[in-house]
Specification:
Helix content: 40-55%
Shape: elongated
Number of domains: 4
Strand content: 15-25%
Largest sheet: 10 strands, antiparallel
Number of helices: 8
């Protein structure tokens, strides 16, 4: 250790009198000696110092790079200035107009929020309408099934009545045959008896014919029952049920039926249809197929629509919306509008009428509400 210290001291003294190159060379010699002494465990870079190498031209490179950047910026400004498209008169005028326009962000926010709320309401109404449509379709299917069952039961009753009438006719025929054979036998017996006169024979035969309640009782049984005279409305309703297919347009609460009622400033005293009360916006369907003959929003009916098939017309009134146009073809069960409260009404409902050849028919004569 003393030797190393003396060597380092000598090196320091020599470094003061040596030039820089000699100092570097002397440091390399000291490093190599120490490396050999400690078997190469010194963690110092072994690369030799390049004394003769000169520093690179870093400043020159920076100057060149700055000059190129300046040229590029100048080129960009030159292109922008001489371009007729970017800074044309139209573009400049529109830019000035846009900058002069005062944008009210509060109004923009209100408009966007209203559109958003309307979109949400529309989606909710759409979902409700889909649910109502499914309910209406299910109701129509149930009504069709009920109508088919009623028709089948009516056909079964008609067949039973025909069979009973046929059996009764056969019984009456057999009774008539028996009576004829009895009369013939009595006449033969009366002809074989001696000393009887023609007048007595006729009296006897006439008396025998009445025995046992023969012809007189049969004549009483065959007297037809008195027929009930139908009104014109009932006749029209029977013809409609025979020739046309009808279904209930909407299921709801019957708020006013056909016929006379207490008149007010809003409603009339003679109701020509039936009112079905439901929530506003509920979708209703066509009760029969046909063609749209009129779509109007005037008068006490408010928004209303006429659908005609032959000489039968159905009327749907006080609607909020109507999906059809004049001349459009309609199928039974088709969605044609939404229930509303337009016209002379006291609340949202559907006014439904049936007319035949211009005559009003009570809807309950045709459909079971």
């Amino acid at each position: 250790m003393i030797f190393e210290y003396t060597c380092d001291k000598e090196v320091l003294i020599l470094e003061k009198t040596m030039s820089s190159e000699e100092r570097i060379r002397r440091a390399e010699e000291i490093y190599n000696r120490r490396r050999e002494r400690y078997n190469g465990n010194i963690r110092v870079s072994s690369s030799s110092v390049n004394v003769n190498s000169k520093p690179e031209y870093a400043i020159f490179k920076k100057v060149i790079l700055q000059v190129l950047i300046c040229l590029l910026i100048y080129l960009i400004f030159y292109l922008i200035k001489n371009s007729n498209y970017i800074f044309s008169a139209d573009v400049l005028e529109k830019t000035k107009e846009f900058l002069s326009y005062d944008i009210n962000f509060q109004n923009v926010y209100e408009v966007v929020s209203t559109y958003y709320n309307n979109a949400i309401k529309w989606l909710e109404e759409f979902n409700k309408n889909q649910e109502n449509n499914e309910l209406v379709e299910n109701q129509l299917e149930n009504n069709q099934q009920e109508n088919s069952q009623a028709e089948n039961s009516q056909q079964g009753k008609d067949e039973e009545q025909k069979n009973s009438e046929g059996k009764q006719g056969e019984q009456n025929g057999e009774q008539e045959k028996d009576e004829k054979t009895e009369n013939e036998n009595l006449q033969e017996e009366s002809g074989n008896t001696a000393g009887s006169e023609d007048g007595e024979q006729t009296v006897q035969t006439s008396q025998l014919v009445g025995i046992g309640g023969g012809e007189d009782e049969n004549h009483q049984d065959e007297v037809p029952a008195p027929q009930v005279q139908l009104s014109q409305m009932e006749i029209d309703a029977n013809e409609i049920k025979q020739n046309y297919s009808f279904a209930i347009p909407l299921k709801g609460t019957i708020s006013s039926r056909y016929g006379p009622r207490q008149a007010t400033e809003i409603v009339s005293g003679n109701h020509k249809g039936i009112d079905i009360a439901v929530n506003e916006g509920t979708v209703f369907c066509a009760a029969m197929e046909g063609t749209v003959t009129e779509v109007s929003g005037e008068g006490s009916y408010g928004n209303h629509i006429y659908i005609q098939n032959g000489d039968v017309v159905t009327l749907y009134a006080h609607c909020k919306k109507i999906y059809l146009q004049k001349g459009q073809k309609v199928t039974q069960g088709m969605q044609i509008g939404e229930v509303g409260s337009t016209g002379n009404v006291t609340g949202p409902h559907l006014h439904f009428e049936i007319r035949k050849a211009g005559r009003v028919v009570n809807p309950e004569y045709v459909l079971a509400f």
